[in-house]
Request: fold
Amino acid sequence: MTPKIVFVQGSPRQAGNTRAVAAAAMAAAREQGAEVVEIDATRLEFKAPGCIGCQKCQQSETFVCTLGDQVAEVVATLPRYDVIVLATPIYWWSYTAQIKIFVDRMYSLSKFTKSGRIRTLLGGKTLALMATGGGPLQDNLELLERQWKTPADMLGCAFAACLFPFTPPQAGALQQDPGAIQKAREFGCLLAAAK
Ligand SMILES: Cc1cc2nc3c(=O)[nH]c(=O)nc-3n(C[C@H](O)[C@H](O)[C@H](O)COP(=O)(O)O)c2cc1C
Reply:
C-alpha cells in the first residue's frame, strides 16, 4: 500500500530552493502512487506564535491544541498521514521560525506522562526532513537533522533526511541543478516506499 505523505513547507521564499527540491520530491512520490498533501506553515494564522505551555492538551483525553486557531486545526490532521516531511531552509542552525511554531504545537499529539511513558498518535509513522542551507553538513545541517531525528526516535517513528549543503543563495538555483533535482526525486521515491 502506498503511503499518505504530508509536506510541511517552512521556507518563506515561495520561489526559493527548498520549495524547488520539495516539489521534485513530491512529484516523484506522486508518480509512485503516493497521496501527497502540502501544508504551508508560513501562511497559517495563529493566535499565539507557538505553544503557550498551557498543558491543556496534556490534561484532556483528546489530542488537540486548545488554542483553536488555524495552526491547531492543521496540526490535528497530521495523524492521517504515514509520513510527515518538514521542508525547510536552515535558519540560524535550526529550522525556520514558521516551522518552529508548527512543531511546538505538535506537542498536542502526544501525552507525556509523569512515569515517562509517552502515548502518541505519531508512533509508527515516518518523520522526514528536506533541508537546504548555504553552509556545510557538519555543525550545521546535521544539527538540524538531529533536531528532528531525536523526537522521531523518542516517539517510535522511522526517520529519513535529504540535505542540500552549500545551496547558492539565489532563488531557483537548485531548480537548474540536475544533480539536486535527481537527489530530491530519489528521496520522494524513498518516502513513497515508506511503510
Ligand atoms: C535568517 C537566515 C539564517 C540563515 N542561517 C543559516 C545557517 O545557519 N546555516 C546555513 O547553512 N545557511 C543559513 N542561511 C542560508 C539559507 O539556509 C539558504 O540560503 C537556504 O538555501 C535558503 O532556502 P530558500 O531558497 O528556500 O529560501 C540562512 C539564511 C537566512 C535568511
